[in-house]
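Curious: can you check?
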Amino acid sequence: MTFVKTYHDFPSAKYEQFNLKEISRYAGGLEDEALILSCIKEIANKLVYKVCYRKFSLKTNENTLDAGFAQITSADLAKTLRNCDGIILFAATVGIEIDRLIFKYGKISPLKALIFQAIGAERIEWLCDQFCKDLAKEEKVTPRFSPGYGDLPLEVQKDIFAALNCGKNIGLTLNDSMLMSPTKSVTAIVGIKNEKE
């Protein structure tokens, strides 16, 4: 059985949940906490936390995988999914508003633009982690694996977007260069481990 669901009302992140250490790390070790906090205040209420996902059965033959939504050849993904008989395919985004602020400050304050880039990176990782924690409450799952990582081709994005209807479900689009918009977005495959493991 496969299904599609969108988290239109994914629990909003509280102000305190922003990880300042991670944001600083993404910003190249920037230690200006006051400036980081002011940027968080500017974007916090403009972020959205949306995920759409679908479950598929999985069949493997060495490095070739029939993942339900596509036939994939990837030794790295096959290794991650070696004890799995299903997958959860998902796409997540924190929305377009942070892209607008990055663009705005790119012209007037490159440092602020860098901080907003870092906040976006921290937020999308937070969202993916939260979603995967929710999955782990119901299934025994693997770490997530995204196109472009290891030997998994970036072109798999086309199949993911088609399978999840990302544009309709969470407003996420893909261009011919495989770049996503909004940019602070992730697509990934999570393996569902079989009961014998």
The longest helix spans residues 110-138. The chain has a mean pLDDT of 90. The chain has seven helices and nine strands.
